[in-house]
Amino acid sequence: MIQKTTYEKLEQQIRCLQRQVASLKQNEVSLKESAKRYKIAQSNDAMLRISMALPEYPDLEELLDYITGEIKRLLDTQGALVILLDEERQEFFFQAQPIMTRRPKKG
Length: 107
Prior knowledge:
Layout lengths: L1 H52 L6 H16 L7 E4 L4 E4 L13
Antiparallel strand pairs: 1-2
Helix pairs in contact: 1-2
């Protein structure tokens, strides 16, 4: 009788632990989904800011500086580059100038 009671208690504890594990897995999935939605929202906000700023930057170099800044903020990094496409040559290239000579944004 004692062994049966102990065995039943162990089975009950195992079922309880299984429910807890299932709950933790569900919470993990929910957290991953929330993090994914947050990253998508952050990316969408950055794309909106960039698209709204396009008319403010008629100079390509200044526009690329702005876009690079937005990307660095989005990715929380110290550096970023924008790759451009030369449509005639069908080649990618970087348009960059030394950091020391860049002009601050007008206005």
